[in-house]
Amino acid sequence: MGENKDRMLAGEWYIADDEELGADTRRRAELCHAYNTAELDDPERRELLEDLLGSVGEGVGIRAPFRCDYGTYISIGARTFINFGAVFLDAAPITVGADVQIGPNVQLLTPTHELDAERRRAGWEKGLPITIGDNVWLGGGVVVCPGVTIGEDTVVGAGAVVTRDLPAGVLAVGNPARVVRKLTGQDDAG
């Protein structure tokens, strides 16, 4: 592995426009295209997903189109559902637990860029991992920012921008997302 890619995977500043990373990007582009254009009942569709992502649990469903940076740094737990238009930028690991529900047009964004104009112009960035706990529900259009962890059983309302960690078992909404209450076993029971 090259020094630049090593820095990326270590969460350090690296140059995104790199030959080795470019080869990984081309690989991802081909696999994403094949997955996104495959027929729903094509038995090779699951194989494409397994080739694209780092790990995929049993019963995972991802509706096309699905986009990612590299794919190999994404792990998705069993029975997770990801709706149309998901964007997972995995310059750092993205870990999605089991039984997670991800609404349409959700973005999980690990890259962050330099505030210094010259370094930003030169292409420096770094990735901070994102972790989504088991049984989380991310409503449509949610954006999860670099370095965020969302605890299990949490619900994030549609359109929220999650800039900081969220604890387990809460409802969070808004921009930036804020916890509005704890969830109980009686929520929406009926």
What would you report as the Rg, rounded to the nearest angstrom? 17 Å
Structural class: alpha/beta
Report the principal-axis shape. Answer: globular
So what's the oligomer here? single chain
**Can you tell me the CATH class?**
Mainly Beta
Order of helices and strands: HEHHEEEEEEEEEEHEEEEEEEEE
Distance N to C terminus: 54 Å
Number of strands: 20
Unreliable stretches (pLDDT < 50, length at least 5) are: none
Under CATH, the topology is which?
Answer: UDP N-Acetylglucosamine Acyltransferase, domain 1
Q: What's the average pLDDT? A: 94
Query: What is the number of independent domains?
Result: 1
Q: Report the total helices.
A: 4
How are the strands of the largest sheet arranged? Answer: 3-6-9-14-17-19-20
Based on the coordinates given, report the CATH architecture: 3 Solenoid
- The CATH H-level superfamily is Hexapeptide repeat proteins
Chart the SSEs and their pairings.
Layout: H1 3-9, E1 14-15, H2 19-37, H3 44-52, E2 55-56, E3 61-62, E4 66-68, E5 74-76, E6 81-82, E7 86-89, E8 94-96, E9 101-102, E10 107-109, E11 111-113, H4 117-121, E12 124-127, E13 130-132, E14 137-138, E15 143-144, E16 149-150, E17 155-156, E18 161-162, E19 170-173, E20 178-182
Parallel strand pairs: 2-5, 3-6, 4-7, 5-8, 6-9, 7-10, 8-13, 9-14, 10-15, 13-16, 14-17, 15-18, 17-19
Antiparallel strand pairs: 1-12, 11-12, 19-20
Helix pairs in contact: 2-3
